[in-house]
Amino acid sequence: MKRRQFARLAAATLAAPALGVSAQGGFPTKPIRLVIAFPAGGPTDITMRALADNASKILGQPVIVENKPGAGGTLPAQGLQTAAADGHTLAQIPLGVFRLPYTTKLTWDPIKDITYVLNVTGYAFGLVVPADSPLRTWTHFVGWAKANPGKLTYGSTGTMTSPHLTMELIAQKLGLQLVHVPYRGSADLMQSILGGNIMAAADSTGFAPQVEAGKLRVLNTWGAERLAKFPDAPTLKELGLDLVQNSPFGIGAPKGTPPAVVKRLHDAFKKAMEQESYLTALKRYDMVPMYMGSAQYLKFAQETFAREKALVEKLGLAKAS
Fold this sequence. Notes:
The chain has 321 residues and is an alpha/beta fold. The chain is built from 11 helices and 11 strands. The strands form 2 sheets. A 6-stranded mixed beta sheet has the order 2-1-3-10-4-11. A 5-stranded mixed beta sheet has the order 7-6-8-5-9, with helices on both faces. Helix 2 (43-59) crosses helix 9 and helix 2 runs antiparallel to helix 10. The longest helix is centred in the last third of the chain and has 21 residues, at 294-314.
């Protein structure tokens, strides 16, 4: 009997560190991977690296940003499905994640199989053309597209991303036949339009430095109001299109991540969001903080999941059942 009691006591003692790390404040115990959905050099990469650097100082461990572009921005979320649920692997969750089940056969659920930590910001979007393009205004763009169906090429940051779907929705509303060219991220997209490979680019405001340098011109922006950086560019609503697109995104962890670990991550990243270096990085791209706590972010995910289904079906892009 004494031997059995001793064995049970020893087992409990050995198990205690593994079970009680978060409760004892030991998390994180090693560097944290934050996987983002777009390549290095774009607005997502630059702003998330500023956020990660701030969070590293708060958490006492490096937060290492890893770029994993492709598949419409959904690869980081897919990676969470095989990661350990210990809080040391995190992923950016762009809106494309909520469309994935309607266009691709999945073995996981974007709502049930991700732990939502917090939302951090959202993109400001717009449409740009080369500065020397004859399509000097949105009116010119639409007129040329109607006169030349199937010939006007535009690029985006990937198939089924918010820029792609918004442009397809605009084309559907106006009866345009546009040619979509997908890229892996803003850096590749900007290189292509500056190289003359496409006629226009739909993107987040990663195009801002090129506009400011006089190489690109903004035809419209997609927020509820005009962007301070581009006050002369009309919104879609001003152009008669009842559309607003700002595409919030945040940070997720694997399903089953302990609540104490989620809270530690939430608190650290929320504090990191408030620091000047992050706010300055956002301002560079006309982005703003869009904080949602864990419960609010989960609710947003659930509502977005339902809304994106309607959009994908409206555009005729849903997978065959």
